[in-house]
């Protein structure tokens, strides 16, 4: 069985350079590739285009890259809780392409499946649909959306084996599975790395064929973006 393991995050991100387009899994702070983001900050790569549901918060997640002005363009579905993201967008420092959340997920899944484009009704008649080809299906107008093209997909999973088979936990599953295999190189960090063949095949969410590199992550903070408790 082919082993996809690498020893360090530095080795896992080998080849990332200025101007790359990156997919990053997660929703808010849930299921984000913390180790990979920290390494991107250390590498100080610039002019990045980042495809992610949002940009985390000011001092964590993709917010760390925004602080260092490493991101040229964000493709996401909302600004979220990140004040710096909002500031850079409104000031024109950061190019932002806001995409309906379902469309964002489908553009990832289409890339994963090798589908170049698809029609969706989401965004027709709004700024989202401006300049895009449109067509009527069953009496309803749709716009043509193209699959994403990315250099790297950076993924966080709960458990994985040396062959790259992955299991996600709870809502950390979010955008991670559809980004696997949707870029030229898929890098996965896991909380628990086990021997190839030791996972129950019936519990695997993403097969190893979609993964190029996998490594054992460390020191996960798993911050909670907003917490509401009873008095």
UniProtKB/TrEMBL annotation:
Source species, domain of life: Bacteria
GO molecular function terms attached to this record: CoA-transferase activity
Cited SMART domains: CoA_trans
SUPFAM superfamilies reported in the protein's UniProt record: NagB/RpiA/CoA transferase-like
UniProt keyword annotations, A-Z: Transferase
Keyword Transferase found: yes
Family note: Belongs to the 3-oxoacid CoA-transferase subunit A family.
Name listed for the protein in its UniProt record: 3-oxoacid CoA-transferase subunit A
Source lineage: Bacteria, Pseudomonadati, Bacteroidota, Flavobacteriia, Flavobacteriales
